[in-house]
Amino acid sequence: MSDSTDGVPTTGSRTALDVWARDPGAYWAAIDQAVADAGLDAPVLVLDRAALEHNAADLIRRSGGVPIRLASKSVRVRSVIEDVVGRNGFHGVLAYDLAEAHWLATQSGIGEVLMGYPSVRRHALAALVTDEVATSRVSLLVDSVDQLDIIDSVVPAGARTPIRVAIDLDASYRVLGGRVHIGVRRSPVHSRRDALELARAIVARPGFDLVGVMSYEAQVAGVADAVPGKALANRAVRAMQRRSMAELRRRRGKVIAELRQMADLEFVNGGGTGSLEETARDRAVTDIAAGSGLFGGHLFDGYERFRPAPALSFGLDVVRRPAPGIVTCAGGGWIASGPPAADRLPKPVWPTGLAYIGTEAAGEVQTPLRGVAADDIAVGDRVWFRHTKSGEVCERAREVAIVDRDDAGRATVSEVVPTYRGEGKCFL
Asked: Ranges for the Alanine racemase N-terminal domain (predicted)?
């Protein structure tokens, strides 16, 4: 589906992005008209190809030549994953579920898939470890010998080919002797000693090949540092992130150097969309995970280093006008995961000047909005929203309409492609 060369946007892409930067209203109005012309019912999920091309090129620029491993959880549209992974600058997939990894490796022909999380799903494990194509392409993530025990209990080492495994090295920042933990709570493998102990156990154990390491610096990649109205907090976040990355580069570099003496590591994965520049500076890292930046959820509006274009959006029908200054949309409660807060809600972006009603917010079946624009909106019109994160919104829709633009910025729906849900897949 690419209209670019090696990730560089075409002229049409640049023109469309100029429209978005200069006149957001015209950008959204063109999407609204394209969907109306195509006769698509709401809720409707739209992917603007021009914005996608812009974002893919920007990810490549920010990674500084380090290959990007596409995080599938942030996309969840197989045709987009296949397209992007095949481009220069991208290599392999970071999957979020074992059945998903198996499916991508065997049905999409993606040659290299790393599990981003451990899995103990016995049926999925049994299906994968008895499939020689899948075992040659998928690497499982482990942070404990307990996970190796479960794999062996499903299919003993002597009854299967060796399983490719990678160690999940905790990338969190610990200060005050470890009493303060900054980052996510994932792997217990944090220190050099932890990593070497687990590596020795893997290398000595029949039926497993240690092929890689993954570490995710969430406190850098997933924390905004330019939130409007929070200048002091932003400075504190940036200072923490600088210190955290300096500590991680030292620790990760030492761990990887010693692990390479024990095993032939094929990859060392790190980072995320929000940390590409900093992770690329780590010489121990061979590829960087990223995916959210392709679709450009509004979570990234609070980052200083970059600002992706809003490639993915969804439109809802206005079905009521309950009072002056208020309209009600059908659906809308597509709330993102994470700590419950206002920033997890979809963001109404067009028509401009709409906001949630505090007592209802984004509803399970209906979403009332108030604002100066409401009195100019008729029943049957559409309101457009951006999702907080990226891939999660695809769990709510079976299809994505792909919108293309000409050099004048006019938009048309060029194709409609299935999401994971549209292909009958529900992984997590």
From this structure: 48-233
